[in-house]
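Question (not urgent): is this output format expected?
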Amino acid sequence: MLDPTAPQLIDIRNVCRSFPKGSGEDLLVLENVDLTIRSGEIVGLLGRSGSGKSTLLRIIAGLTSPSSGDATCRGEVIKGPPHGVSMVFQSFALFPWLTVLQNVELGLEALGVERSERRKRALAAIDLIGLDGFESAYPKELSGGMRQRVGFARALVVHPDLLLMDEPFSALDVLTAETLRTDLVDLWIEGRLPIKSVLMVTHNIEEAVLMCDRILVFSSNPGRVAAEIKVDLPHPRNRLDPVFRALVDSIYARMTQRAEPRTPTVEGIQGTGVGMVLNHVSSNLISGLIETLAGPPYNGHADLPVLAESLQLEADELFHLAEALQLLRFAQLSEGDLTLTDAGKRFANLETDARKRLIAEHLVSYVPLIGLILRVLDERPSHTAPAARFRNELEDYMSEDYADETLKTIVSWGRYAELFAYDEQSEMFSLENPH
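Got this back:
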């Protein structure tokens, strides 16, 4: 149990962060975020892709500054990387021309630690993290899991007070990630890690419940702390424990709750105006999920955690898919459950051409950007329009990256439904059968 009187390492108060959009306005990524980290705890930042988790981590690491609000480390305003804070990245970030030992020694070298002491501490960190015998190997000779272990050893060798982890297991295969997670938790419980606290960013719900003492759930657009969840389960935690499963289920339900609408809405579904961000989900995946839901054992209704496990999908991927089904009115998403609508059940039993016609009807009815594109194409004598015409409009509502992703999704869905043609080279939309 965390001691509430434990020393405070990080204090974040009313932090906001915005970035300029293509339209010249600012895109708010973080809004009024509060966070305190004390000595002796593992804290998780859990949220969807694009909820600002990594931006907050970078503010704490001193790699970017808040647009407003206060960020302090041990009472000092964070200006540049604070002393006693180390970071482990998703992408390993090793120098390929250096050996394992040299990669781990780098941080100590930057601190001016004497050579013999450097070597001694680096060898101890390598041994601790399970890479004894690989000191002379180069990164290209190591597996992904071993390269990430080098990343951990390099972060731990400076004996930081706070270890920051930005989705450190997401680039690894399932078994390697599970082994590394378990090893780190074991070292933490045994008190063998030379650190005081951990702050980790993840969008993997089970990972957060498995490792963390406290989880901050972020909502998106802009990122805010929607909930704080204390995990009082003793380590080591058992994924099959009913209390563990119930906590995972409750977090799924919380993360699929509708937020208060901030953009135009259609029939009460949040943000379904032209300015809605659409994550790229292929029509094949949409069809596959509808078929899976319609058949046994689900028979039209599934619990998201169970579905994620059986389909081997990350929560974030499944959320995107489920929301696409809900947007198109083929399923209803509520309290962590996904239920096919009558239209979804009908879709599952149709042949390919009939499916295309049904999706076309739903796209025109429920995706305003599709309606806008068709209207513009229909009104122009040439029945063509450049993608830039619609991208510019999207950038009034969202970042350039989200505008590109949304347009990519629209192109994919519109082509499948044979609503329009799109030329990748010229980036032009056109009507195949002008009215």
